[in-house]
Amino acid sequence: MTATLKRVPLYVLAVVLLVFTGFPFLYMLSTALKNQSEFFEAPFSFFTSFNLENFTTVFQMGLSRYFFNSILITVLAVGIVMFIASLASYPLSRMKFKFNRVLFLIFISGMMLPIHATLIPIFKLTENIGLYDTLWALLGPYIAFSLPISIFILTQFMQEIPKSLEEAAKMDGCTHFGVFWRVILPMLTPALMTVLIYNFIHLWNEFIFALVLISSPESMTLPLGLQDFRGEFSVNIPGLMAALTLASLPILMIYLFSQEKVVKGLAGGAVKE
């Protein structure tokens, strides 16, 4: 009984956090189910209407195209980042060579580089190579700015893997690539899931590079395309809420199905005591 009473404050805190985190999503969904007049009559009422017209309207306004663009560029960028980061992290964490620490610090220093300081050089470079106003213009910046944190997470996680496993594999005749592919990579799944979720959420919501490097509706990603729901003198708030509800579903689904591995990956990548 005493142990149960001690947990009461934790349960209360969990409920409070649930309310704070769940309220915005419930309000967004409730507003998406209203029309304009119902929203202005009762903006703070919950689920007083169940009108699905807004969801039909947002697809007619091109939401499906924005969805496809975001999914394509995000999945491609995250896949390349996971591939490069896993290969780069292996020698940084498992091999001893002269400039090991220096290279690691160079990679990590990328996390301290302000994105806004790179906008003009990236814009000029993209324009010069002929990729401006194409979806592929986003691929380079997305990969470059996702690699530092990805390499950091994977390197820290690999350092926790016992050396004895690697030595045993080498005694059986494995090369460095064999050790990486057969021993390290299977054990890297929690950290890779952490990298996947972190970068997917970040790139799915990325706005500033899309705003600078893309101007035509055909190449717009979802965050940039949501501006279509803002008129010159008014905003279709229920329509915007419907679009935001649909835009948040992929992230919610991926995180709900992967949250356990995310927590394990973050714990595994912690610094050793």
From TrEMBL:
CDD domains noted in UniProt: TM_PBP2
Record carries keyword Cytoplasm: no
Entry-linked InterPro entries: MetI-like, MetI-like_sf
Residues of the ABC transmembrane type-1 domain: 67-258
Family annotation (Pfam families): BPD_transp_1 (PF00528)
Single Gene Ontology BP annotation: transmembrane transport
Name of the protein this chain belongs to: L-arabinose transport system permease protein AraQ
Lineage, broadest ranks: Bacteria, Bacillati, Bacillota, Bacilli, Bacillales
Gene designation: araQ_2
